[in-house]
Structure formats: C-alpha cells, structure tokens
Write a sequence for this structure.
C-alpha cells in the first residue's frame, strides 16, 4: 500500500511539474518578442492595479476602449490613432486584466470596468471626453455614461455586444468553469490549450475579419502576447469573461442617456442588424452606419472606412 501511495505521489508530482514547465514555455514563447512594450507607455495607478495607457495628439479628448475578448488590448486601435492626432488628444488604455496593465487575481465585472473608466476620465483626462468602444466594452461605457453624464460627450460603438448576451448572468455551470480556470497550474494549462496560436488564427479568420487576405501575422502575434503577459495571472480575466461575470442588463441606462451615439456594424458580423435595431428600439436617437464587407474588427480590417465615420460624427 505504501509503495502504491509513494508511486502515485511521484507520478502526480511529475505530472504537475511537467504541466508547469509547459505553461512557462508557452508564456516565454508568446511574450519574448515584447511587441506591446514601448518606452512612451504611461501608467495610471488605480486602486486595483497599474493601468497602462497611451496618450497622443492635441485637440478635443478622445478615449478608445478595447474589447474584452482574450488577447484584447489597446493595440486593436493602432491603425486609427495616428490618423486622428491632429484633431484629438487621444487616450488608449489597456483595461485591468488586459495587455500591459496589471492582472490581479480577482473577479472582473461590468461594474469594475465602469468604475475604472470613470476614475480614468476624472484623474487622467480631467475633462469631458468622447469615447470609441468595441464589442463587450460597450455596456459598461453606457452604464458609466448613465451614472456620470458629466464625464461623457459623444460616443461611437463598434459592433456592440447584443442585449441578449448582456442578460446571460452567471449560472452554476459558468461559475464552475471559472473555478476550474482559476485552479493553479491545471487551470493555467487549460487556459493555454484553449488559447494557442491556432485559436487566434481561427478567431481572426472566422470572427474578426471578413477578408482573410487582410489578416497580418503581426496582429496574431500581438494578441498572443497580450494573452500571456503576467503569466498565470492572465487567466483570471478570461475566467470571469467565460463565467459571464462581465454581463449586466443596461436597458434602463440606454433609455435614460441623452448623448449623441453612433453605432457602427460590420455587414458580415453575425446578427448585427438585429443587435443594432434592438438598441435603437430602446433609444431612437442612436444613429447606425454599416461598414461593408467587414466583421468584428473593422478598425483593423478597414480602418479608412471607420475613420471616415469618426470624422463625420465627431
């Protein structure tokens, strides 16, 4: 019996050690290029961690807020920023848990990001700001605007999260998934298996871009790096996202806000017409424009089309 226990213990320890080595190896391979690092990076010391942000240009303030999918960061806007610096003072943060910002081991929620954005505007920008946000970040921007209207001017939302998805609250199953991902070593290993280079290539080809020929290798590599920065701590925001802890009902907020809002939808984005029409149903002052032959990230795939709409609206 003792020999069996010893053998089982040795095998278990060896397996855990091997998985740990695999985790460290993937982290090294994905982050060794240091593609997201820049000597011009700024950092805002927020109460839950350091928030990395870029600041460029002169003019009316404009805040870019990236999506909440794995590998997201302010990098997704890099093809827009330099074309707007003559007209706007631009701020592009990496949200907590993403990119070069800190990734504490906590539960990430819509309310957390609402607080972050309001504090960032108040303490870093210091004046009313127009906002451009993507996908799953749109709900907490709308909520923040509803609760703190004095901070927000015009808003542009690119392929916003559907109202149906926002109502999907954590269940027993999603809470269990979150717990699994947060497990030391094993949870990191599962996270790494799900977020390989193949995963990012497939996501760009099937969800982010309509024309595969527009996908550049550097896009994939930057998303891969962002998904691994801070090592095992990168998984915590993914765990909360998968567990649906970032969702919240914002219908009341949509009805109440009076800001000028433009929603941009890629014509090839799944169910985008229904999604945008649902927003307009609750606030008929929302304007809609469609970007032909694009999917979820038109600002990477067809930046000129997005820039045209930004300039016309702002």
């Amino acid at each position: 019996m003792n020999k069996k226990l010893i053998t089982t213990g040795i095998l278990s320890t060896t397996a855990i050690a091997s998985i740990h080595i695999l985790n460290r190896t993937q982290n090294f391979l994905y982050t060794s290029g240091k593609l997201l690092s820049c000597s011009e990076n700024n950092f805002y010391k927020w109460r839950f961690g350091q928030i990395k942000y870029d600041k460029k240009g002169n003019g009316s303030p404009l805040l870019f807020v990236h999506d909440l999918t794995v590998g997201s960061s302010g990098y997704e806007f890099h093809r827009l920023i330099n074309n707007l610096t003559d007209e706007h003072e631009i701020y592009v943060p990496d949200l907590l848990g993403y990119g070069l910002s800190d990734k504490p081991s906590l539960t990430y929620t819509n309310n957390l990001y609402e607080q972050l954005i309001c504090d960032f505007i108040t303490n870093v920008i210091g004046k009313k700001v127009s906002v451009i946000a993507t996908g799953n970040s749109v709900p907490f921007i709308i909520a923040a605007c509803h609760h703190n209207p004095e901070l927000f001017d015009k808003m542009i939302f690119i392929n916003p999260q559907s109202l149906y998805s926002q109502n999907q609250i954590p269940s027993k199953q999603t809470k269990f998934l979150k717990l699994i991902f947060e497990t030391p070593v094993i949870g990191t290993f599962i996270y790494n298996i799900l977020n390989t280079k193949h995963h990012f290539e497939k996501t760009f080809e099937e969800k982010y871009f309509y024309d595969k020929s527009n996908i550049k290798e550097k896009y994939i590599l930057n998303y891969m790096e962002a998904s691994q920065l801070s090592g095992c701590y990168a998984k915590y925001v993914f765990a909360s996202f998968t567990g649906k802890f970032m969702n919240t009902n914002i219908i009341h907020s949509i009805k109440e806000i009076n800001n000028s809002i433009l929603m941009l939808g890629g014509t090839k984005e799944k169910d985008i017409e229904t999604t945008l029409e649902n927003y307009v149903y609750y606030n008929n002052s929302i304007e809609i424009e469609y970007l032909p032959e694009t999917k979820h990230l038109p600002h990477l795939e067809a930046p000129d089309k997005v820039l045209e709409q930004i300039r016309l609206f702002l």
Remarks:
- The CA atoms of residues 181 and 187 lie 4 Å apart.
- The longest strand covers residues 49-56.
- The two ends are 75 Å apart (CA to CA).
